Amino acid sequence: METANRQPTAASPGRIRVLVGKPGLDGHDRGARVIAAALRDAGMEVVYTGLRATVPAIAAAAVQEDVDVIGLSILSGAHESICRRLNEELSRREARIPIVVGGIIPAADFAKLKDLGVAAVFGPESPLAAVVETVRELFAQTPTDPGSGGHERWTRSRPSAMATAAHGCSTGTTATSPSPSHSREGIPATRLDHTAICVRDIDASIALIEDLLGQKVAHKEFVPAQKVQAAFFDFPNGASLELVAPQGNDGLEKFLQKRGDALHHLALRVRDLDALLARLESAGVPLIDKVSRPGARGHKVAFLHPKAFGGTLLELVEAHEENHEDAAAR
After folding, report:
1. What is the CATH number of the domain that holds 272?
2. What is the C-alpha separation between 308 and 160, in angstroms, rounded?
3. Range name among 36-50, 146-160, 294-308 with the lowest pLDDT average
4. What is the C-alpha to C-alpha distance for residues 139 and 121, in angstroms, rounded to an integer?
5. Domain end: 148, 171, 201, which one?
6. What is the pLDDT of residue 44?
């Protein structure tokens, strides 16, 4: 993802930030780059996702980058389905960000896109000045006051739940930028525990990864509380690669139907998990599990809602600090 005209820290106050996305499979992005250049020349900050960005990736980037407007360049003819899915992804993340669409869009489809919630549509040969002015108007219309009744965006107009948790206070309290020591109070992770891939055939996936990595699977078990088969490949730095295959887990079955074998979640190692969950809940951090539950290898685990971590599912793992030889022998 390319970012232009922005500082590596927080967004510049009052400066319009635009994400330019190029979803779909077509490989022509000249128009998207021309639009990005015009917006930069107009003094805006532009984040460009690059070619063939997925809709969930665009939504996640828009939230993480705290943009004011999303611009999509679509030449594939799939503009209706892409805009519908993007609105769904943004709603899932509780983000209301105006969407502007340009590209090969038939005039007959303009109204359909407006019905899907698209703020503005531009066809071929649209004046760049009109695009720039539309973005400015949308920025001016976007509610930024939390008391306005609108679903203000994730971070620009209020502290995020995670940042508030770092202060150890409720979401109703005005927060300032947390110091490094306060940030560590949010989720005091000791290390990355594992990265998990959801697979349909765990034995075939184990054989594939054993051949690729040149090492045997370290541990495999059925986890009744989660209704999954789990297998781990352990690495010298203490982290693991986990494979999970549903055995009656409806959520994972739906995940596989939608995405196939794919990265599912990240996991952080923590201590005193239940106390941490209670503190995160009181701070307004969205949780899937409000109390810990049994996980693989006898560990206690809990999941945060994806919207707490910018669209990524995050697992917290409490375990005794042990070496992989001990863990694999379980």
Report:
1. 3.10.180.10
2. 8
3. 146-160
4. 16
5. 148
6. 95
